[in-house]
């Protein structure tokens, strides 16, 4: 099921925004005109990524510095070794909709 | 929205107005009202736990919104619920108390026990009828300023249980407490147990929600005070609905040559964080703590345990075992603290975790803080995934996968079952565990 989270016009390029969707926290980011969504959870020790530093497509966990790809959720640097979950996104008449994967 | 409407809405919340209305509705003695007011100030001045705090850094509280909940109105008459009761089956109880949303709705005690001076009743009633006793012990162990949840509980607990067993009185039959919560409800309840010198008792407590998937908010406190040579068996089964936020501070103080056997089983809630402490305050005190956690879906259960040796020749033994399914997570932090001069300490802690899914996660963080020289303190921890070969072997013997997993899980918990001395509790726990087992993916 898709949940509407915001308007496309609310998103600034490469600035992730945290939303609560169905009891979970996710990061929605506009990158090169596409919208992506990943869990706002670091797979190293469960830290929240939202306040981490962004460098292009990647965000660093403020706790121990693990980095994740904001598009795919892939873990890019230690100490995280597993990807964080990525979710399906679609834009419908200017509204950003998110569907959680498991 | 007009001003009157805003005012009446805030009356129902955990705001200053909501607190004032709560206090005004109650018939508390003055000393208690004053105590509540002073802790409310502490609560009001505090922030929610800092995610950088070691105790809370693995706990994502962002989804918890206190505003979604309403303080209970004790002027309402609450009806019994259909929330399951598991520890009462086939046991002849010496006393029984039931509560709904943190308010006691029925209470009974064997008249023979009452004649011996045993008190087992609602905590609100005890504050009026046994003021001196309660005043002396209530919130004497738990620091109301430990965090914002402890402060909220101390300021706004709605009811709970008071057990008092006089000197050398032995309560043979178990005493039972069931706390129920309706969907979207709250439970701010406190359990206070005081055993005088040489007293003995068994207390079975359990909590559950009317709806299995139910939401709600539990913020509780447990204080167990054991006089010299007393003996307490305390069991608590946590089976809140799968969307409940649960926070608790639980602490026991064990006197000279006294023994506590404390069994904890945690299965329910969406998020639970429990701070459990046992303080061995006089020579020869012993504590045996058995913990079982069994999680599923996206449950997140945290136990922060401290076994503190304040005196010499004391024994503490903590064994926690968790089985995790789906994408659930458990965090266990165990600390043995040995104070200066607490020689001849014998402290042991262990945490074992069994993962039934690739996506589950168990954090096990044992610790020691020892300031005495002549001590024996050991700790250990294991974590592993269920052995596929064992399952396959059982399947070749005609068991289904589900049966095989259940056998493995039961075997994993066996060590804890062996340490539980009350048969009905073993059975109830076994049944609760069987209900939780899913197919392994
Ligand atoms: S919790 Fe994110 S790097 Fe450790």
Assembly status: heterodimer
What does the main sheet of chain A amount to? Answer: 6 strands, antiparallel
**Mind summarizing the main beta sheet of chain B?**
10 strands, mixed
Strand tally of chain A: 10
Q: Could you tell me the number of beta strands of chain B?
A: 20
Shape by Cα distribution of chain A: globular
Q: Any ligands, ions or cofactors bound here, and which?
A: FE2/S2 (inorganic) cluster
Mean pLDDT of chain B: 92
Tell me the strand percentage band of chain B. 35-45%
Proper CATH architecture of chain A:
3-layer Sandwich
Write a compact overview of the structure shown.
The complex is a heterodimer of chains A (102) and B (441). Chain A contains no helices and ten strands. With 102 residues, chain A is mostly beta strands.
Describe the protein:
The complex is a heterodimer of chains A (102) and B (441). Chain A is built from no helices and ten strands. Chain A is mainly beta. Chain A has a single domain, classed as Rieske Iron-sulfur Protein (3-layer Sandwich), CATH 2.102.10. Chain A is globular. With 441 residues, chain B is of the alpha/beta class. Chain B is built from ten helices and 20 strands. In chain B, the strands form two sheets. A ten-stranded mixed sheet of chain B has the order 2-1-5-8-10-12-14-16-18-20. In chain B, strands 3, 4, 6, 7, 9, 11, 13, 15, 17 and 19 form a ten-stranded mixed sheet that branches. In chain B, helix 3 (30-45) packs antiparallel against helix 7 (148-156), helix 5 (123-129) packs across helix 6 (131-137) and helix 9 packs antiparallel against helix 10. Chain B is globular. Chain A binds chain B through residues 20, 23-25, 41, 45-48, 63, 102, and chain B through 51, 57-58, 60, 62-63, 243, 270, 298, 327, 329, 363. The complex binds FE2/S2 (inorganic) cluster. FE2/S2 (inorganic) cluster binds at residues 42, 44-45, 47, 61, 63-66, 79-80 of chain A.
